[in-house]
Every structure is written in C-alpha cells, then in structure tokens.
Amino acid sequence: MNGPDQPDLPDLPEQEEPMQSWIDQLAEALGEKPTTAGETSEILTVARDVAHRVERKLTPVSTYLLGLAVGRRLADGADRRSALDERAARLRAVLPEAPEEGEDSPVPADGP
Known about the structure:
This protein starts with 16 loop residues before the first helix and ends in a 19-residue tail after the last helix. By secondary structure, the protein is an all-alpha fold. The chain is built from four helices and no strands. It has a domain at 35-93. It has helices spanning 17-29, 37-53, 59-75, 80-93. Helix 2 runs parallel beside helix 4 and helix 3 (59-75) packs across helix 4 (80-93).
C-alpha cells in the first residue's frame, strides 16, 4: 500500500511489514523521505558487514557516520542513491577482510 510520495516497494513478508511501516514513520518524523527497498538493503548489508567484520556494538556508530557522509554528498548536489552507494563503498574499503568460518573478527573488541 504505497501512497503517492511512497517509493515502490516489493511485497514484504508479513513479519517485515511492521518494520517497514515503523522505519517509514521514523523517516517522516525526521523530515526525510522513506528509504527505498534498495537503500534499506544497502544500509542493512553495510551494517551486517561492520557487525561481522569489526564489532557488533560499532554498527550503530558506523551507520550514523555513513548517514552524515551521505548527507554531505546530498548537500554537494549528489542524488540520494549515488551518495549512498559512493559512501557505502568507502566504508567497505576500510573494513578488514572477512574472517574465515569459525574465526573471530580480526579487530579486537574492547571490553565485554
């Protein structure tokens, strides 16, 4: 059920509809357009990569920094998808290599 200002989203499994609805409400509350399915997928993929290859507790900070960098590119005139793709690529460029199956992250965790 997409409105005139809503991006076209694929049909979501029933359990994902409340999550997408909430994230759309959050975007509106923050004065932003809702994310497209592609943008959401890219953000979640980057967050997963940080969680698995660096440290889970750094995931929110890394996505915050990604958002700041995307916003800066938007202010420079880039379109939203290009800005996200460019900055996600830069984030990935500084990630350590993925650990082998069964190995811990190559970046040591601080504390418990």
